[in-house]
Amino acid sequence: MNATKFILVAAAVLACTILPILATIGYEAVRTQGITHEVLARAPERGNYLPRHIKAQAGKLVRLRIRNVDTVTHGFTLPDFGIDVGDLKAGHSTIVEFTPQKPGTHAFYCTVWCSDHHLQMRGTVEVVAP
Amino acid sequence: MPEERNEGRGTSGEGGGALPIENPKSEIRNPKSRGEGRLLGLIPLSWRYDLAALPGVRWLLKRRWFPMIAILVNLFIFMGILTGGILGGFSPGNYSFTIMIVWILWWVMLMLVLVPVFSRTWCMVCPLPAFGEWLQRLKVFGVNNQLQGLNLKWPRRLRNMWLMNFLFLGTTFFSGFFTVKPLATFMLLGSIIVLGIVIMLIFEKRSFCLYICPVSGFQGLYSNMAMTEVRVKDPAICAKHKTKTCETGNKRGYGCPWLLEPHSFTRNTYCGMCLECFKTCPFDNVAFNLRPPGTDLLVNDKRGLDEAWKGFIMLGIAIMFYTAMMGPWGWLKEMVRGATLGGWLTFVAIHAAFNLLALPGVFLVFAWLAKALSGDRNVALKAVFVNLSYAMVPMGLAAWIAFSFGFLLPNGSYILHILSDPFARGWNLIGTAGFPWTPVLTGWLVPFQYVSLLVGLVFGADYGYKLARQTFADERAARRGFIPLLAFLVLVALFFGWLYGG
To answer: Chain A residue with minimal CA distance to B85?
Structure first.
């Protein structure tokens, strides 16, 4: 087999095996560049919010991605910053932004009655001084 | 090649004339009417149309890069499926690329189109054994008949479907996980690839596909119903061809990777449609035939208990999948998805016993009745059991087609979402991420299912009678022996009808 043929075949095989993985990782890395935190949403008996405690700095933009990785609809509200994403369906995700101005602790919680343990589906954003 | 296991009588050369198909292994003894040589009394079973006679098709099938190019495209999609298994490792099934593509799109396409129409074309483009095969050949597109690896012969005792039967049944024990947890599907597919590589480095050619791959067995059995086949055009040309390059390979292609004798094989069951025989035949003597569906059911070549059991296992799994996934029995769902270990073990025990013992046991009673009613004392009960069990193939395939409608129509729209957001990360690649769940024609679901079952029943009955004619001594005995088989088929159809629409 000549060199050109070998390179073409190798390129075809790599394009069909490694390329999809690299493309996925690369695309996701580009898309998530500005995201400062990611929270996974699951019913309390399946793991609850992860993480349940987020640390942020006063005066700095928080770009939060919430991913519902559960099999039921969840919600996410952070009332102190006027954030409510509404219904976040299973498998869906959303991004919220806010800039806390002063230190303090702020509760976030699920707004959809997602399970018998729904009321335990909550967490906190701790804002610390810069 | 797979071990010869002819069961029962009526194989060849006995008694009167043959069906008007060229294969002597499909004879009906003492045929009385022309209808016996026709599907549903209408289409001659010998009718064939060689699709490869079309110039573009033959040109394509003889290219060295085909079907490898399709395998590579499939591999590209498959890598996405594997990636989704990890990146979307805890996503809900309906929004997971891995689960939607494998268990909705692929499975449904397999049962609705690929197997019933195109036989084992999935095996033609399957990416799972690709890595193992490349390691054997040290080539991707080219030809190297000096295969690498140990190239051992597969153990004679295991040259049948039993291992595949147990592996496929064993896989369904975990169905409650595969269909909702992408990571579980990743582990299943990943282990098939790894096992494939290991086996293909130890045993010759496609031994893995022939004797282990869990997906291979049911495709093999159900492809007897397919409307297409790869066969030689003129056996006389092959008879004169001493070197048999379709077996040994030549510079144009490999000797049959599926360990068949392409010049003389008679059923789709063990043909992976890899198309190598199109390349290696120096006389252009291979056809890709369109044919009446199901003609292989009448070919008594390598019929055996393993294939009979495969038919019952497929029927039993269709029942279990429906009751667990779409039925109203919550307690059963809890058992299948392993809410408690005890519950899951109970499910495994019941599911295994139902498939391996209960269903074949009930059929054995009907086979015994068939033998008793026929009055034919010379035919062995085992032969009656095995031969008549092939009438379950159209019925089982119809039950799976009906089941597939139940998946596709309500859930198919999720595919548009996952094409845009394959890993549940908020992507919108083709702008369909927001496409809502939209059930399609679900009002017609049950009628579609009933029609599928009815077609399966009609085909099952038609082939059942022909199988009875092959099995019993004469037409009278066959008619009497057919009655219990027909009763069994009707009961199965009614049961599935009740299950799906009752």
So the answer is: A21
